[in-house]
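Lab manual, section 2.4: Encoding a predicted structure.

Procedure: take the sequence of the chain (183 residues), apply the prediction step described in section 2.3, and record the output as C-alpha coordinates. A sample record is shown.
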Amino acid sequence: METTLEAVMWSGTVFRYTSPEYATLNEFLSGRGSLKGDGRWHLKDRNTPIVYTSTDFDTASREAMAKVRYYGLLPEQVLPLVVAAAKVNFLKLLDLTNGLTSPLSLAITVEEICELDWRNIRDQGGVAITQEIGVLAYDEGFEGLLVPSAAARDTKGVNLVYFPDRLSWDRPPELVNPGNLPN
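Recorded output:
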Protein backbone atom coordinates (compact mmCIF):
# COMPACT_ATOMS: atom_id res chain seq x y z
CA MET A 1 0.00 0.00 0.00
CA GLU A 2 1.36 3.41 -0.92
CA THR A 3 1.31 6.23 1.61
CA THR A 4 0.13 9.72 0.84
CA LEU A 5 1.26 12.37 3.26
CA GLU A 6 -0.08 15.81 2.45
CA ALA A 7 2.16 18.84 2.63
CA VAL A 8 1.16 22.22 4.02
CA MET A 9 2.78 25.63 3.57
CA TRP A 10 3.58 27.83 6.56
CA SER A 11 5.05 31.33 6.88
CA GLY A 12 5.70 33.39 9.97
CA THR A 13 8.03 34.02 12.86
CA VAL A 14 9.50 31.20 14.91
CA PHE A 15 11.45 31.32 18.17
CA ARG A 16 14.40 29.22 19.23
CA TYR A 17 16.54 28.84 22.33
CA THR A 18 20.03 27.42 22.09
CA SER A 19 23.22 27.18 24.11
CA PRO A 20 25.83 29.92 23.63
CA GLU A 21 27.95 27.43 21.63
CA TYR A 22 25.37 27.58 18.80
CA ALA A 23 24.27 31.19 19.30
CA THR A 24 26.21 32.62 16.36
CA LEU A 25 25.04 33.82 12.97
CA ASN A 26 26.43 30.72 11.27
CA GLU A 27 25.16 28.16 13.78
CA PHE A 28 21.85 29.38 15.23
CA LEU A 29 19.69 27.89 12.47
CA SER A 30 22.13 25.24 11.18
CA GLY A 31 20.87 22.23 13.14
CA ARG A 32 24.41 21.00 13.72
CA GLY A 33 23.83 20.75 17.46
CA SER A 34 21.15 18.12 16.83
CA LEU A 35 23.84 15.76 15.55
CA LYS A 36 25.07 15.34 19.14
CA GLY A 37 21.97 13.58 20.46
CA ASP A 38 18.53 12.18 19.71
CA GLY A 39 15.42 14.33 19.96
CA ARG A 40 11.67 13.80 19.94
CA TRP A 41 11.64 14.01 16.12
CA HIS A 42 15.10 12.83 15.07
CA LEU A 43 17.81 10.23 15.52
CA LYS A 44 21.40 11.43 15.73
CA ASP A 45 22.60 8.27 13.96
CA ARG A 46 20.85 9.43 10.79
CA ASN A 47 23.35 12.31 10.61
CA THR A 48 20.52 14.61 9.53
CA PRO A 49 20.54 18.11 11.04
CA ILE A 50 17.22 19.29 12.40
CA VAL A 51 16.26 22.65 13.91
CA TYR A 52 13.66 22.78 16.69
CA THR A 53 11.66 26.02 16.84
CA SER A 54 8.31 27.15 18.24
CA THR A 55 5.65 29.30 16.63
CA ASP A 56 5.35 31.55 19.68
CA PHE A 57 7.70 32.85 22.36
CA ASP A 58 5.89 31.26 25.32
CA THR A 59 6.03 27.79 23.77
CA ALA A 60 9.74 28.21 22.97
CA SER A 61 10.41 29.21 26.58
CA ARG A 62 8.53 26.21 27.92
CA GLU A 63 10.31 23.89 25.49
CA ALA A 64 13.67 25.28 26.61
CA MET A 65 12.87 24.20 30.17
CA ALA A 66 11.40 20.77 29.29
CA LYS A 67 14.71 19.04 30.00
CA VAL A 68 14.84 20.75 33.40
CA ARG A 69 11.41 19.41 34.33
CA TYR A 70 12.05 15.91 32.93
CA TYR A 71 15.32 15.32 34.76
CA GLY A 72 14.42 17.31 37.90
CA LEU A 73 17.23 19.81 37.33
CA LEU A 74 17.41 23.37 38.57
CA PRO A 75 16.87 25.94 35.79
CA GLU A 76 20.31 27.44 36.39
CA GLN A 77 21.86 24.07 35.49
CA VAL A 78 20.92 24.52 31.81
CA LEU A 79 21.68 28.24 31.61
CA PRO A 80 22.81 30.32 29.91
CA LEU A 81 20.54 30.02 26.91
CA VAL A 82 20.15 32.44 24.02
CA VAL A 83 16.82 33.07 22.30
CA ALA A 84 16.27 34.51 18.84
CA ALA A 85 13.47 34.80 16.33
CA ALA A 86 13.53 33.98 12.63
CA LYS A 87 11.25 34.69 9.69
CA VAL A 88 10.47 31.49 7.78
CA ASN A 89 8.57 30.49 4.69
CA PHE A 90 8.07 26.75 4.22
CA LEU A 91 6.46 25.14 1.20
CA LYS A 92 6.34 21.49 2.28
CA LEU A 93 5.69 20.68 5.94
CA LEU A 94 4.05 17.60 7.42
CA ASP A 95 1.36 18.96 9.77
CA LEU A 96 0.83 16.78 12.84
CA THR A 97 -1.06 19.35 14.92
CA ASN A 98 -4.17 17.22 14.43
CA GLY A 99 -2.34 13.90 14.76
CA LEU A 100 -1.43 11.53 11.93
CA THR A 101 -3.26 8.72 10.27
CA SER A 102 -1.18 6.87 7.71
CA PRO A 103 -1.41 3.50 6.00
CA LEU A 104 2.14 2.79 7.27
CA SER A 105 0.77 2.03 10.76
CA LEU A 106 2.21 5.36 11.88
CA ALA A 107 -1.06 6.50 13.38
CA ILE A 108 -0.74 8.78 16.39
CA THR A 109 -2.95 11.33 18.11
CA VAL A 110 -1.94 14.73 19.46
CA GLU A 111 -2.41 13.38 22.99
CA GLU A 112 -0.12 10.44 22.27
CA ILE A 113 2.52 12.76 20.77
CA CYS A 114 2.46 14.95 23.87
CA GLU A 115 2.46 12.09 26.37
CA LEU A 116 5.09 9.96 24.63
CA ASP A 117 8.21 9.53 26.77
CA TRP A 118 10.67 9.38 23.87
CA ARG A 119 13.63 9.72 26.25
CA ASN A 120 12.64 6.58 28.16
CA ILE A 121 12.09 4.67 24.90
CA ARG A 122 15.56 5.76 23.75
CA ASP A 123 17.12 4.82 27.09
CA GLN A 124 15.57 1.34 26.74
CA GLY A 125 17.25 0.99 23.31
CA GLY A 126 14.11 1.64 21.30
CA VAL A 127 12.99 4.17 18.72
CA ALA A 128 9.97 6.35 19.46
CA ILE A 129 7.18 6.61 16.90
CA THR A 130 7.82 10.37 16.74
CA GLN A 131 11.39 9.64 15.68
CA GLU A 132 10.10 7.20 13.04
CA ILE A 133 7.77 9.91 11.76
CA GLY A 134 10.63 12.42 11.62
CA VAL A 135 12.71 9.95 9.58
CA LEU A 136 9.73 9.29 7.29
CA ALA A 137 9.14 13.02 6.78
CA TYR A 138 12.79 13.53 5.87
CA ASP A 139 12.86 10.53 3.54
CA GLU A 140 9.66 11.70 1.84
CA GLY A 141 11.27 15.08 1.07
CA PHE A 142 9.39 17.23 3.58
CA GLU A 143 11.17 20.40 4.74
CA GLY A 144 10.01 19.74 8.28
CA LEU A 145 7.04 19.17 10.55
CA LEU A 146 4.46 21.23 12.41
CA VAL A 147 3.93 19.38 15.68
CA PRO A 148 2.11 19.85 18.97
CA SER A 149 4.32 20.96 21.84
CA ALA A 150 4.48 18.47 24.70
CA ALA A 151 5.81 21.24 26.96
CA ALA A 152 2.95 23.62 26.14
CA ARG A 153 0.09 21.23 25.48
CA ASP A 154 -2.21 23.07 27.91
CA THR A 155 -2.02 26.16 25.66
CA LYS A 156 -1.97 24.13 22.42
CA GLY A 157 1.55 25.33 21.64
CA VAL A 158 3.02 24.38 18.27
CA ASN A 159 6.59 23.58 17.32
CA LEU A 160 8.04 23.79 13.84
CA VAL A 161 10.99 21.47 13.34
CA TYR A 162 12.80 21.60 10.03
CA PHE A 163 15.59 19.94 8.08
CA PRO A 164 18.00 22.62 6.82
CA ASP A 165 19.21 20.42 3.98
CA ARG A 166 15.66 19.77 2.74
CA LEU A 167 14.60 23.37 2.18
CA SER A 168 12.96 23.58 -1.25
CA TRP A 169 13.35 27.28 -1.92
CA ASP A 170 16.32 29.59 -2.31
CA ARG A 171 15.57 31.82 0.67
CA PRO A 172 16.66 30.32 3.99
CA PRO A 173 15.13 31.30 7.33
CA GLU A 174 16.27 34.79 8.31
CA LEU A 175 17.17 35.72 11.85
CA VAL A 176 15.39 38.78 13.22
CA ASN A 177 17.97 41.32 14.48
CA PRO A 178 20.94 39.20 13.43
CA GLY A 179 23.35 41.97 14.44
CA ASN A 180 22.61 41.11 18.08
CA LEU A 181 24.31 37.71 17.73
CA PRO A 182 28.07 37.17 17.59
CA ASN A 183 29.62 36.19 14.28
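Check your result against the sample. The mean pLDDT is 91.
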